[in-house]
Give the backbone structure.
Amino acid sequence: MLVLIGYVIVCASVFGGFVLTGGHLAALFQPLELLMIGGAAVGAFFVGNNAKAIKATMSALPKAFKGSVFTRALYMELMALLFDVLSKVRKEGLMSIEGDIEAPAESPLFSKYPAVLADPHVVEFITDYLRLMVSGNMDAFQIENLMDNEIETHHHEALVPAHVIAKVGDGLPAFGIVAAVMGVVHTMESVGIPPAELGILIAKALVGTFLGILLAYAFVTPLSSVLEQKVEEEAKMYQCIKVTLLASLNGYAPALAVEFGRKVLYSTERPSFMELEEHIKKSKAK
């Protein structure tokens, strides 16, 4: 929603200012210029990326127009789930959660937290490392190193769409210049026409440069920034899980382990100690 609001502000400011200076909006409506700029950008997008990057970018773009799913409520659900799992381990032993991690969708523990269960990547991350803990063949340092490597890999992979969009945005001003040059070439071919008509052709050519720069810096490049921020938010989920599980491996009680996880969250989404404690009590009462 914020992206759309930003687009409206950009259009109102740029085109509104143009009208207030006495300009005519019809002069800026140059569909052929848009065809050249947009077509060149789309073509370069396909040339410069493999099928995986293209597919990832197309899947990620709709997320830029949606609000963040990583809310305080989601983090409290995540930490309540981790508390329940670690409490069961502490009371009944690691083998007691084997059924839960093999089929989380059917697990009474995981089913209490549908918001977490709805994210298969997060569920897979939790269950994979709980499975390693159950195996008992790896110490905390080995698991931490493996977690760091997996989070780094996920981070780089998730950033691909942002980098792709940024490169497309970087190319748009140049494509605008290409369109403008094509317009100038057409103008030079028509030097024999009356000055008034010649001026119209020059104006049309200059619109290409204007559109390329506007599309780049007001529409496309900001999307890459939004996608990058969303990736950073998502990474916090994995860091919270990592810190909590490692604290448990190092012998801390479930309540303290969850507190470790709470402390790594961004301040805007981090619940207070009392909020989290109250939420855990309510979840235990279900």
